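Supplementary Methods S3. Complex input for the cytidine-5'-triphosphate-bound model.
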Amino acid sequence: MAQFLITAGPTREYLDDVRYLSNASSGRMGFALARAALGAGQDVHLVVGPLDAAVPKGVRVTPVISAQDMERVVRSASKEADIVIMAAAVSDFRPAFRVQGKIKRSGSGTRGGRMRLELVENPDILAGLGRRRSRKGQLLLGFALEKEKILENGREKLRAKGVDLLAVNRVDVIGKDRTRLWILDREGREEEWPELSKAAAAKRLVKLCLERWEEGRS
Ligand code: CTP
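Predicted complex, serialized as C-alpha cells:
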C-alpha cells in the first residue's frame, strides 16, 4: 500500500478580513484523485483549499486557506507520503499586506478612482518538493494549465519543478467534468490521453503513479 498526499482546490489570499484573491478551481480533479486512490485500496491524505463541495468520505482531510498554509501542511505531511499529487490551483501571488478589518473606499490610498494593489510571490510548493524529496523513492506528480504550446511549456515546467510526472491540461478545463491530458515524464516520454471524465482520468493517473512508484522501488 502507498501513502498518497493529494492537494485540491484553490487557495485564498486575503486583502483584508472580508476580501481575497482566488481562482475558479472546483477541486474536482483532486477529489476524483482522492476517490480513485482510495478505491485502489491506498491510504489518502487530502489537503484542500476553501471549497463548498463535500470532501470524499474515508480520506483524511486537512483544510487550508492560503498558499502559505498549504505549503506548511504539505511540507510536513510529505515526510510520510510515497506519492504526492499537487492538483491544487495555488495562487502564485498574495497581497503584500493584509489589512486588519475592512479596507474603506475612502482614506485607503485611492487616487482619482484608482487603487494600487501590491502583490508578492507565493512559494512554489511543488518546486520545493521537487528540489528536495522528503522521503526516499517518493513520486511527484504535478499539474500544469497551459493555453498554448502544451508540450513545449509542459516540458519546461517538468524540468523547472523537478517532478517525475506532469499532467498538462488546457485552461478551458477549469470547472468542467471532462478533461484531456498530456502526460510527460522525466525520461522524456509523452502521451496524449483521449478526452475522459475527471473520474476516469483520475483512475488512470492513480494507476500510472502506482506503477511508476513500484518501478522506483524495484
Ligand atoms: N503549484 C504549486 N505552488 C504554486 C503554484 C503552483 O505547488 N505556488 C503547483 C500546482 O499545484 C501544479 C503545478 O504547480 O501542480 C503547476 O501550476 P501552474 O499554475 O501550471 O504553473 P505555474 O508555476 O503557476 O506557472 P505559470 O502560471 O507561469 O504557467
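Residues 198-217 form the longest helix (20 residues). The mean pLDDT is 94.
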